[in-house]
Amino acid sequence: MKIVRFDAGDGARVGALDGDQVVDLPRVHSTQELIGGGAAALEAARQVIASGSGRRPLSAVKLLAPVIPATILCSGSNYTDHNREKANTPISGKEPEFFVKTADCVIGPGDTIVHDERLAKKLDCETELAIVIGKPGRFIPAERALEHVFGYTIVNDVTARDRQVRRNSQGFTWYELGRGKAFDCSAPLGPWIVTADEIPDPQRLRLRTRINGELRQSASTGNMIFSCAQLVHFFSVNFTLKPGTVIITGTPGGTAWSVDPELGGKWVGGDGSEALVPAKGYLKPGDVIESELERIGVLRNVVGAAA
User: Fold this and answer.
1) Rounded Cα distance, 53 and 145, in Å
2) Is 288 helix (H, G, I), strand (E, B) or coil?
3) pLDDT at residue number 204
4) Nearest to 243 by CA among 291, 193, 203, 199
């Protein structure tokens, strides 16, 4: 099942996508409510879909971010080819790089990523598989972790590289992950959540990024250093994971950072699975970003200049 939030002109609603139609779930007031309702809530949603009522064309509504998580738990440096293309810290690839984004960062499909040079001149994007937690838990063992997953969606981890990457005169590199990762429009999310029953193995998905039609990233989620199950375990040590919590899982090679020697980047060409087009620089107003995950869909956003 594909779970959506949408606006048909009268405010945000929760629904399900059935082909090219959106089915309104009138008794559901938020995505978190649906997720927290577990199997019974999903069965009730299936009954609404089967009834044929409350339908409207997808083209007649505006899709919103399918969930607005209070906190997005983020793992960086989780693909080997991305680590090879960038300046690394001593922990890169040895343990998940732990940072957070908040609800303030989230925008939806079709929304504009604002390019504001007062924040950053080196704005980059990272397509990532996002895990949506369904069943709450803490200290969740990795072998049971996927039982706590409601579904999966796509996040574009928009990054201010000139805020993130810090280097001293001796060549030591460290990251300022607060200012480099968490800011307005830095977490486009969507276009919907695909429930976990439709993705039995999240480590067998193809991830791609296209900018203005050029293929910039391509990799299998099987190339993650730490799997989805391991990341659920990792973050559950710090937090009680709750229904609607989102965990993002890192990005593969092909970022604009890879063509920026000033920040320690070096072009590697991804993992070799598909020929990539090297970035011509960082994001600029007018760029169209398509973040794609197999079995989920495509999240599209446009970069726009600050007012």
Assistant:
1) 36
2) strand
3) 98
4) 193
Q: Residue 52, class by beta-carbon neighbours within 10 Å (0-12 exposed, 13-18 middle, 19+ buried)?
A: exposed
Question: What is the pLDDT, as a whole number, of residue 267?
Answer: 96
Tokens of 230: 């391991």
Asked if residues 69 and 106 have their Cβ atoms less than 8 Å apart, the reply is: yes
Nearest partner of 79 among 208, 249, 225, 204, judged by Cα: 225
Q: pLDDT, tens digit, for every residue of 143-174?
A: 999 999 999 999 999 999 999 998 887 777 88
Q: Is 249 exposed, middle or buried (0-12, 13-18, 19+ CB in 10 A)?
A: buried
Helices and strands (H and E) in the chain: how many: 6, 21
- What's the pLDDT band for 244 if we cut at 50, 70, 90? very high
Looking up residue 289, the CATH number of its domain turns out to be: 3.90.850.10
State the Rg of the chain over Cα: 19
| Mean pLDDT for the chain overall | 96
State whether 7 and 92 are in the same domain: no
175 and 292 part of one domain: yes
- In whole angstroms, give the CA distance from residue 234 to residue 150: 18
Together in a domain, 78 and 47: no
Q: What is the pLDDT of residue 168?
A: 82
Q: Coil, strand, or helix at residue 144?
A: helix
Please, what is the end-to-end C-alpha distance for the chain in angstroms?
39
| Pair 140, 115: CB distance under 8 Å | no
Structural domains in the chain (count): 2
* Coil, helix or strand at residue 172: coil
* Full domain range(s) for residue 57: 2-64
- Alpha-carbon distance of 250 to 105, in angstroms, equals 17
Do 119 and 45 sit in the same domain of this protein? no
Separation between Cα atoms, residue 79 and residue 270, nearest integer Å:
10
